[in-house]
Amino acid sequence: MKIIVGITGGIAAYKAPELVRLLKKAGHEVRCAATEHALQFVTRVTLETVSQHPLYCDLFASGGTEHISLKDWGDLLMVAPATANIIGKVANGIADDALSTLLLAFSHKPVVMAPAMNCEMWTHPAVQRNIETLKSWGIRIVGPAEGELACGVNGMGRMAEPQQIADAICQGERSKMKGERWLVTAGPTYERIDSVRFIGNYSSGKMGFALAQALVDAGAEVELVIGPTALNVSTYQHIHVHRVESAREMYAAATELFPQCNGAILSAAVADYRPAECADHKLKKNNSEGMHLDLVQNPDILATLGGMKTSEQTLVGFALETDNEEANAQRKLEKKNLDYIVLNSLRDKGAGFGVDTNKVTILSRDGHRTESPLLSKREIAQLIIQTTT
Ligand code: PMT
Hints:
Layout: E1 2-7, H1 16-25, E2 29-34, H2 44-51, H3 66-73, E3 76-82, H4 84-91, H5 98-105, E4 111-115, H6 119-122, H7 125-136, E5 140-141, E6 145-148, E7 154-158, H8 162-175, E8 181-186, E9 191-192, E10 198-199, H9 206-217, E11 221-226, E12 239-243, H10 247-257, E13 263-266, E14 273-275, E15 295-297, H11 301-308, E16 314-321, H12 325-335, E17 340-345, E18 357-358, E19 360-364, E20 369-371, E21 375-376, H13 377-388
Parallel strand pairs: 1-2, 1-3, 3-4, 4-5, 8-11, 8-13, 11-12, 13-16, 16-17
Antiparallel strand pairs: 6-7, 9-10, 14-15, 17-19, 18-21, 19-20
Helix pairs in contact: 1-2, 1-8, 3-5, 4-7, 9-13
Bound molecules: ligand PMT.
Ligand PMT binds near residues 206, 317 and 332.
């Protein structure tokens, strides 16, 4: 993993080189970013020597866009120590130096913070409120620990030990969902008209497959029920592939697998209707008139899982809309008894069918709303998992 270690101005900054060393020993590539105040406690030379990369400290050093290239490079941003100041800045969207700007740019990737401060600062309502805000956005907090503080008193506020932080990063990334099993539906369904024709749609399965990969990265086993696609999804450990063709086949597989799962994310574009009859031969052209197809409704897989769901399970649906997007998504969230719904609008350029990017709004049952910019489907999948699990 590519990890950025951000260091802020607290006495525990002297432990940052040890953290960098441990992360590198565990096989990670590490770069450091520091505030000016951090460099009162630990030197640039030390951080550059242990990380073997230039330190990122000055927002304008290389044209003012390094926070973006560093964001693109990193898989995870770890802030250790995290002072009350940096916690407050992130919680309030303030970006006034290199590290705080990088933290805002990192809003769709994993961030971990190891707070360190005096015990009375730690219990201040503002700090506690800010910590709760960060947690609600999916930022992981490691520590602080109780013990002797730099100011001489004993209390809660010591930064967690470097080994504990390094373990938390490694375990967190690989085992956040260890032991969990998730169902994902992906791709289109084909509804046969006759032996050579079908009703289908443009779904490629890319969004669903990205979700399956992101769940596996977080440590889960995945049951991937996927309609007809050209994607190569078979060679991945921990992704159990169930290939189906029609909505009814997808329904049968999903309803059978769901009771053994901790949750489900239904990203498939399922045909709402199918031909009432399927001819077992190729239908011949009728020269005199047009052709009429009688359609009947397919079962709604998501609504059925919403009815089966226990209080232990999480159910995430998608909504693909072209107008009144949010109101329609909200209606689906309630009607189908979901915990979250991921809205794509076909009005957003680069979002939806076939492409490698997407732009979504995630609505939760309890009224939270998370809006993404245009990101790769892999990053969108990580954001969905961060927000919903
Ligand atoms: O596969 P890609 O090319 O990567 O494209 C991704 C995507 C655009 C298909 C995906 O991001 C997406 O938006 N999927 C949902 C498409 C859809 O059918 O939306 P909907 O609003 O019609 O359905 C709402 C929800 O009900 C969806 O979770 C759908 O899977 C589910 N559904 C719908 C009908 C049905 N009979 N059974 C269902 O489970």
